[in-house]
Each structure stands twice: as structure tokens, then as C-alpha cells.
Amino acid sequence: xxxxxxxxxxxGSFLARNLSSTHEIVIVEKDKDTVERxxxxxxxxxxxxxxxxxxxxxxxxxxxxxxxxxxxxxxxTNILASSWSASVxxxxxxxxxxxxxxxxxxxxxxRPKLYIVHPGAIMAEKIISxxxxxxxxxxxxxxxxxxxxxxxxxxxxxxxxxxxxKDLGPAKAWIFVALSKKGEIMIPTGETRLDSGDYIxxxxxxxxxxxxxxxxxxxxxxxxxxxxxxxGRLGLGVAKALSEKGIKVKLIDSDPERAxxxxxxxxxxxxxxxDATDTETLKxxxxxxxxxFIALTGDDENNVLSALLAKNLGAKRTTVLYTKPDYIDVIxxxxxxxxxxxxxxxxxxxxxxxxxxxxxxxxxVEEGRAEVIEVDITQKSKILGKALKDIDFPEGSIVGIVxxxxxxxxxxxxxxxxIDDKVIIFTLPEALRKVENIVGQ
Length: 441
Fold this sequence. Notes:
CATH architecture of the largest domain: 3-Layer(aba) Sandwich
Number of helices: 14
CATH class of the largest domain: Alpha Beta
Largest sheet: 6 strands, parallel
Radius of gyration: 22 Å
Number of strands: 22
CATH topology of the largest domain: Rossmann fold
Strand order of the largest sheet: 3-2-1-4-5-6
Helix content: 25-40%
């Protein structure tokens, strides 16, 4: 397929790298330095120019595109480019819009096969999902909310330390699909032993996955108070969402103007002006009694440092926003409880909307070290009617869960895909293309 990507920032360039091995990618980017850098590292067509200029889009031959991804850093540019793309008949258009004020005028973007991605809403949902699953390091929602993937840490005190997966009994309501050991992700077998410090990925129904708390010896404690650092769009969006759930929220920002605007907008939220890497500011906000501390600024280092200070002062759990891909391993090693990448979260949302050939990449895991894909079984599916044991799935992949209408199945060797089944597969990068060839249409 021919995919035109408008904007080669963190999200655009990440998507281009991820999709370029199997699709024809055209990038439109106005920044000259970014263009030159991409030309050195990506084997794709790159057009230098403004995405809201029809001549630039004509140069990119937008009328030949199967998909348009408008993910530049400017909402107006994305909106204008999507309008032009729709006018020349691009079949599917995905638009990233950061400023939620545009969402109050839905008719501007009311077109068939046009999808809006709002990072603030995505991140707020992810953070709220983490808070509602305090025993999980990460959560991903799959299959239209019917399936959830949790990343769980095996602590030294966990009862399952030293046990093999086969010792935990057969998978009935959930399945462990991957294990991260010392930063390396692998597909486990029954012989895989769980050690302290490992992270394990589980797939299952949201309500049932909560029973994993027993295996991991964790207890639910209600979240009544949250301290958030950052009064940008994301911080305000998360604060509003949590406040509406009856949670007591406090905001911190070092910028006087942002703090003042936040105080005027958020009537049920206390706002503190100060540096969150300063102990006195954190104490003033009452972080020592906070159930959750969330750092949502655009500075990775400050987010991590403030979270560590908050943890040291008594905050029960900490979550940080990060943008640098290499930070995930560092964050896990130094003791911050949770980490969320805006880039990965937005990219995952966009990939889930593509559904190319009946296959959607719905979650990039650990900065792309693994992926989760959803396969819709149709009359054209290559695996329709074949028993799982007779399908030669490559090493490095596992068929985790099947959604058949409203029934969730943990597939065994005798599982036979039927029309309308939704099959969820966890795969390492080296196996992904083979899996897509096996399950595609």
C-alpha cells in the first residue's frame, strides 16, 4: 500500500520506520535538517515542503495514496492536509489533533473514513487505566476494549519466584505470552522459570486479569489523592479526568503563567507554582501522603528525578512520561514504578486504525521490541478452517487469545479459526513479517 505521512517528528518517523518494510512510504516534512537526517536513515521518498500547501501534496502524489497519516506538530496543517486529501479521494485518512478545542467543531472533520487521534485523550485513558490496575507496570486495551494486556513485575516477595510456568497450571482465563528478562523479550514455554526482576506480559479479559493479583501477592489500595507535575494540555486533561472520578488532585508547574491558567480552569484542583525537582515544593503539595505521583512534563530527566524524590518522600506509586526510547530500561532499573511513552501510545492508536489486509498492529511493546497484532478472520483469510497445530507459525510468535463473538478462547492446537474470529498474536520483530504472511488475506 502507498502511505503518505505528513510530519516526520517522533510519531511520524517512528511510523515510517515501522511500516516501510512492507509498504510504500512517502514522507512530507518542512524542516530541512529533519529531511536530511531521514534521507540518511530511511529508504523512503521524502518531500520537503509544507503539508498545508496543495502543491507539496501534489508533489507527493497524494491522489495515489491508499492512506494519509497527518501527524505533523501543527493541528491546522493536519486539518488542511486532511481536507485536501479527502477532496482527491484518499480512501483512509488519520489525523492527529492535539488541541481539543478543534474537537468542539466536529463538522470540520466530518468525512467518511477519516479518523481523529487525540493524544491527550489517549494518554489520559492510559494513565487512568494504570491507576485502576495499580499492580501492573503497563496496560494495553485490545479488541475494542474486550481484551487487556498487562505487564507485571515479578518481585522478590512474589510467590511465583523460582517456579516454572507449567507449575502455575493450564491457561484458562488468561495466558502469559511473553517474558522480559534483563531487557530481553522472549516467548515463554512451560519450562520457563520466573526470577525476581522479570517482567511478564499477560493477555485476558479485564475482569479476569485482576485475579492475577493473587499470583503476584499484591493488594488493591484505593487511589484517593494524586499529585501531577505539568500544567500543559496533557496534565490538565489527566487532572480533569481524575477529578471527575472523585480523586483529590494537586498540580505543580514551574511556569507562573501556566500555573495561573490551570488555577483558573481547574476549580476543584489545587495548583502549586514551583519546581517539582525541589523537595520543598513537593512537600508543600503534600506528596508524602499521595497515593500516586505523575510527572507529565516534556523533560524526561526532570520527570524521572521528581518521581524519585516523590517516592523518597513517601508517594506510594509513581508514573513518568518519557520521550527518549532508551530511557525505558533506565527507568525500570532505578525504581520508578510506571513509565508511559506519548510516541508509542499515539503510534499504537494509529496502527490499530490501519487494519491493512485484515491485520492490525495494535501495540508496539517496549519501544518496538515486540508487537501485538489483531487478525480479523474473513472468507479470504489464509488460515480459515485450519487447525492451529497445522499452521506453521514461526518461532518468536504465539497465538495468545481468540475473541469469538463475545466469547474469549485460549486457543490450543485443535483451535480452528472461523469467520469473524478476532485472533490476537504476540510476536517478536524477527517473526512479524512471516506471521503477517501466514495470517494475511
